[in-house]
Amino acid sequence: MHRRAALLAVIHNPYAGRYAADIMPMMEALKGLGLEMAGRLVRLLGGDAKVVEGYGKGAIVGAAGELEHGALWHAPGGYAMREVLGDAKAIVSSTKKVGPVGCRLDVPVTHINASYVRSHFDAMEVGLADAPRDHEMVVALVMTTGARIHARSGGLQASEIKGEDGLR
Amino acid sequence: MKAEIRKIVIVVEETRSEMGKPVDPPTRKAVAAAVIRNPFAGRYAEDLEPLMAIGEELGGVLGERAVAALGVAPGRIESYGKAAIVGERGEWEHAAAILHPRLGKPLRAAVEKGAALVPSAKKMGGLGTAIDVPLGHKDAAFVRSHFDAVEIRIPDAPRADEIVVAVALTDSGRPLARVGGLQTSEVKGEDGLR
Prior knowledge:
- The complex is a heterodimer of chains A (168) and B (194).
- Chain A has 168 residues and is of the alpha+beta class.
- Chain A contains four helices and six strands, in the order E-H-H-E-H-H-E-E-E-E.
- Helices cover 21% and strands 27% of the residues of chain A.
- In chain A, strands 1, 2, 3, 4, 5 and 6 form a six-stranded mixed beta sheet that branches.
- Chain B is an alpha+beta fold and 194 residues long.
- Chain B has three helices and seven strands, in the order ββαβααββββ.
- Chain B has a single domain, classed as CATH 3.30.1330.110.
- The mean pLDDT of chain B is 97.
- Chain B is globular, with a radius of gyration of 17 Å.
């Protein structure tokens, strides 16, 4: 059985509507949310972090915000998942956009310990009917439990992972 | 197998201002997408080699078209990404066979170098399905200013027996990037990460 799970949070964007040069405080403020979301996502998949093999993250910024506000999710979202999954080695791939209420986002997915595992390259579309409003952001985390269904496109296999550099 | 291409769509997005502040020089993203016939629509095929060959062909074609659309030397390309949308009579794995085995090599040739993984997305969908093509720095995946994405949507594709294949390139990072992390000036470009 192949399972994919997404957890989304709709948060207030304190920088919406004006240019703020220093937006880094928000990155710090999102750390707790990242950890909470990553933990809940693991529980959604049964509570055992060992079943999680793929991950990704993304952000949709409401209309009064700036694309760069979505970038605030990179560190808190990514490092939270890596921590909750037991020091996962691979970079967490991502997408971001500015969009209206109901906007959809394709969140890319890769293997948690070796980015080049070909069977785990994937993506999941997420979104919420009533968000993001113009002063909001939707932040998303995605986890998957294995290879794509009927994966048969060759490349590096999960069984061959060395797990040292996060790539292979 | 050669790709049977019904149409090619090229979009260039140029951002000149963000939140009232000028972006100078403008940041630019190009997406080149091809709508192709899916030779395996409607049936299960164990061997997807023909789609891998199509991926190889399109990596070159779409990479070169996107570079040309930006009008810069290939070495000036800074980030890249790829994506596919499979029409409803196809299979999720058809996107993987096009994107992953062989599309990267000719794409990297088109942009000169490319030590980093080419980030990707895939999905299935009907006419007008949009997809967000993820973007990452082509030589160092951890360059934070270049984590990005660009949406592409073709109103009349993919039909049920078609696949949309897209390559996205930029000659810049995000507009007004300011969330820290690894900077382009610090890139070593050896391991593809930093």
